[in-house]
Amino acid sequence: MTAGASDPGERESALERLCAVLDPDVINGAQPTGAAAVYTPWVVLWLMVYQRLHANASLAQAVAALLGSTDLLPPNRRVTAGTLSANTAAYSQARSRLRSHIPDDVADRVFDTLVAGTAPSLGTRRVFVVDGTTITLAPTAELQRVFPPATNGAGTSAWPVWHWVVAHELASGCAIRPETGPMYGPERVSELALGLRLLSRLPPRSVLLADRNFGVFAFAHGAKQAGHEVLTRLTEARFRAWVKGATAVAPGVWKRAWEPSRWDRHNHPELPARAELTVWLHEVRVSDARTLWLVTTLDRPSAELADLYRHRQDVETDIRDVKRTLKLEELRGRSVDTVRKELSAGLVAYNLVVQVRRLAAARAGVAPRRLSFAGTWSLTAVVLLSRTTWSAAQWDQKFEWVLRGAAQRKVPERPGRTYPRTVIRRARKFPNRPRSTLPDAHEPQPPARTD
């Protein structure tokens, strides 16, 4: 799509949908407060999103921004008199009081609204890229109890490990609120279990792209039961073993019945006695050095499936944008309830930036991921959130400038260049001191995800 007469209409439609989702009356109605309250649920949520859009800004920075934008606040004697305190205690307490379902509900509505404004990627079906990741949290007693740290032969780490399974919609780039749980300890939840929880929250008739970690019967069966389709990768050895019991239907394509193995039955006793799926196996040579071995519940041509599956790597960049650009890997919360609210507010911020990027990409006539997320984020945070007292005409002018600037921040195309997944270690606090002198010299570090 290129810039044209329809662009302003699309922009206005998108903004109208967002305003309806972020309506203060609706959000405040979910948790009524007293008439004298300054930090209403809408104000608290706005501040949490502000913190995330400003790269994990501190509570003090958020409150300072609020004092400079008092038009956001409800009518109040302290506001009109200019005596509202700049201390962070009131905001911190209001954030703790905020009901946890409110950020979740807003994040879900923002996702649904933005995805609904984007055409599906595969005919009438929406495609989601599914993957797992982890972050470490503040070493508080509560978080350590709920999300136990990693352990090894040398002992136990101090850092609680929070396990996520994410799903990003391919056409829009928007992320649904992830399913989460502990990665270690007696209550640990596997990546597969989190993925199964996610299925019921995806739009009907979705297609799920996933790596070989999700190429197991329980996930494919769960997806089919939820009305979805699956496209995953297999190892060559496993693919060759499966082909032996399959029927060739075309060059490089086989069809077979997929039944749960003894291992599947042992780990998933809830599977029906006669559980079975019809799947297609595709061997697709995409280059002289690379071959894809795919299994899918979709009856589609190999070339189409290979072209679709190459987008699975997009989730690696998307997770990086969520965790590093918006610094969701550095959540400040010290309780389970607070970090969950921070996660949902972070997803609101992420999806709003993705929406701005999509509108800018439509204007530039390129795919959304061709534009830099970090570049779009910086323009959105610095320009659109720098003041809230602009008139409607001024705000519209600034938004036009953001779209034009974001459209200019294209990611360079470098054919043949690849970025293999690497392990990024947590930096030591005292790099100049000999490790043997540190009191925690043998403390194990949590396993670093490579997203």
Please, could you describe this protein's structure?
- This protein is of the alpha+beta class.
- The chain has a domain at 6-102 and 336-408.
- Helix content is 42%, strand content 16%.
- It is built from 17 helices and ten strands.
- It has helices spanning 6-21, 24-29, 41-53, 59-67, 77-81, 89-97, 101-116, 141-146, 191-198, 217-225, 236-243, 262-267, 302-309, 314-325, 336-364, 373-384, 392-408, and strands spanning 127-136, 149-152, 155-169, 179-182, 207-210, 229-233, 247-250, 253-258, 277-287, 290-296.
- The protein is globular.
- Mean pLDDT is 85; it is low at 1-6 and 429-443.
Query: Given the C-alpha coordinates, what overall shape results?
Result: globular
Structural class: alpha+beta
Order of helical and strand elements: HHHHHHHEHEEEHEHEHEEHEEHHHHH
What is the rounded distance between the termini? 30 Å
**Average pLDDT for all residues:** 85
Largest sheet: 10 strands, mixed
Low-confidence stretches: 1-6, 429-443
Strand content: 15-25%
The tally of beta strands, per DSSP, is 10
What would you report as the Rg, rounded to the nearest angstrom?
24 Å
Helical amount: 40-55%
* Secondary structure tally, helices: 17
Oligomer: single chain
Organism: Gemmata algarum
Protein name: IS4 family transposase
Pfam families: DDE_Tnp_1 (PF01609)
InterPro entries: RNaseH-like_sf, Transpos_IS4, Transposase_11
